[in-house]
Design a protein that fits this description.
Elements: E1 4-8, H1 14-31, E2 34-41, H2 52-70, E3 73-80, H3 84-99, E4 103-107, H4 114-117, H5 121-128, E5 132-136
Parallel strand pairs: 1-2, 1-4, 2-3, 4-5
Helix pairs in contact: 3-5
Length: about 140
């Protein structure tokens, strides 16, 4: 049913993504699908890494562990952005189109006041993508 699954990852918030990673790996294994883990970052330090190469190494290690632990085909993709917060939605939509992704599994936080001002990335992707999107809280 699904052949290519995308899971966007915020490497600075691994606890919130544990459920989404679990769902994505289970879907990839069940459907014998490719799992594409994407991290969008800049060359500025952030809570996940001090450098872009450190963030890439962290992502590669995570994906390597997923491959080994769950026996799935998984690939890491580090996407560079000047402003990850502002460009995330458009970069994810572009990746979905270019890689012909047919399912997105995203973690989401509990909605609050900020969603009235700034839409959440998960709701944007779910509203605009032409494919299935599974938002995990």
């Amino acid at each position: 049913m699904f052949h290519k699954i995308l899971i966007p990852l915020d490497l600075s918030d691994s606890e919130a993504q544990t459920k989404a990673l679990s769902v994505a790996t289970e879907m990839a294994r069940t459907h014998n699908a490719e799992l594409h883990a994407v991290s969008i970052g800049s060359n500025l330090p952030d809570p996940a890494a001090r450098t872009e190469s450190e963030r890439t190494a962290t992502l590669n290690a995570l994906v390597s562990d997923l491959r080994t632990q769950h026996n799935i085909d998984a690939t890491a993709h580090e996407i560079h952005s000047v402003d990850p917060g502002a460009e995330m939605d458009s970069l994810l939509m572009q990746f979905i189109e270019e890689c012909q992704i047919d399912l997105v599994v995203m973690s989401s936080h509990e909605p609050g006041l900020m969603e009235y001002i700034f839409p959440a990335h998960g709701s944007y992707i779910a509203s605009h993508a032409k494919i299935s999107v599974f938002v995990v809280r």
